[in-house]
Amino acid sequence: MEVLFKVIRQAQNSLPSVQTYRLEVESGNTILDCLNRIKWEQDGTLAFRKNCRNTICGSCAMKINGRSALACKENVGSEIAFLEKSYEFNHQANSIPEITIAPLGNMPVLKDLVVDMSGFWNNLEAVTPYISTAARQVPEREFLQTPEQRAKLDQTGNCIMCGACYSECNAKEVNPDFVGPHALAKAYRMVADSRDSDTENRLENYNESTKGVWGCTRCYYCNTVCPMEVAPMDQITKIKQEILTRKTSDDSRSIRHRKVLIELVKNGGWIDERQFGLQVVGNSFKDLKGLLSIAPLGIRMMTKGKFPTSFEPSTGTQQVRALIESVKSGE
Q: Is 289 strand, coil or helix?
């Protein structure tokens, strides 16, 4: 079958452009197979990364039809099937299928589909993704783990550092300080590792403002695009739970946000916005600076008649409370 490959090409510090290549392909051909043919048969200047061709190294991650994926894993047939579900494709009579290929997001482009991953690796290093030095000072024998202890590391150990989750991360796009889902997935591996002796310090670092776990917007894109089912969002949630079990509401606004939200929902079925602002931002009148920061908003709401003067619990509050308690007991 004939397919048009629209490749977003770009030199460093320049605007991108679209170049179209026409190929006769089989549905089972991978996107990497097609890129190789374009480079070998049509345009030797096209730049992209590749290595193993077998979903192991993560080198060939790029955006394929708008989502980050491995070019060696995705094939022409599945991409066309995906496109055929779209409105645009179904309303183009006798159209030749088009597959758009672009560089990963959240990283500067060096050339064509090759991006600079320095920030990606620096953010990984920031979470100290290796067993603590103190834990490795064992003079006589190696560390032993039970099968149950080792099993906790299996999912995060599957990460191949392809950058797909980092590319799709909304939090990283708007917050350059956020370390990214790849780093926090590796961070949980260290928290869960029975051989590590630095858990408390790690959790302090991962709890820091929006650089760590609280910077995540919970969009789930990282889970969706991960080719190895590492589910970075799930690992971030596990770190949050570890932090919440060790910290009180006085420790940070992020922790108060989570704890207060749950308590207010338990009490009223939904959130009493008056209490939410006072307890989270103002820390129940303990944080005067926080209270002053929301005072202008409160005044504007009152002058416009939008400040809630009362709160009425929702119907089914008892059921909501029972569900929350059931989840907590299950944890």
A: helix
